[in-house]
Amino acid sequence: MIDLIKSNLYKKNLLILILLYILTRLLFYIILGIKADPKVIEPGWHIIELSFLNNDLFNSLLHLHSQPPLWNALIGIFTKTVNGDLIKTSIILNIFNYFLTIGIIIYTYKILLIFNFKEKISFIIILFLIVLNPNVIFYENITFYTHALNFLFVNLFWLIISYFKTKKDIYEILIYLNITIQ
User: Fold this and answer.
1) How many whole angstroms separate alpha carbon 139 and alpha carbon 44?
2) Is the Cβ–Cβ distance between 105 and 21 less than 8 Å?
3) Mind listing the pLDDT tens digit for each residue in 56-102?
């Protein structure tokens, strides 16, 4: 299995998947106009008001009672970097979600290979179930924390498999950290 992951075919297929992913997102943006909706990060039941996050991030998170604190902390950090600009915050969150999807592609590919799926089958599964999946496209652009949780679940699955294969303490620590974050 380790030899397969280090192989050139693995790297080539993974690079092709990532390039196809980037190409499809560019085409979706240019041709179909699919992009992040900034209205989603206006105050709602899962996000604190951006002005609070921008002006007093710590106290906003400290007095948080119903919204996801880590997600709001992330949005608060992004908001502070662009001085509270709604559109720019939305763009940064959208790009962050794109990186999460690339992580999902990489971890899913590794998991499929660990379970002895053939390279070609793994490629096709990821192409249709992640790269071209309308649900993934939707959650990348709605900037909702569900996409981040999806990444954390795929990562957790890979960490558990890696831990049981190697029994290394670092994987166990990362498993607990992942669960704590979720």
Assistant:
1) 16
2) yes
3) 999 988 887 777 888 899 999 999 999 988 899 989 999 999 999 99
pTM: 0.90
Query: 45, 66 in Cβ contact below 8 A?
Result: yes
| φ, ψ for residue 167, nearest 5 deg | 60, 25
Using one digit for the tens of pLDDT, what is the confidence trace for 106-134? 999 999 999 999 989 999 999 999 999 99
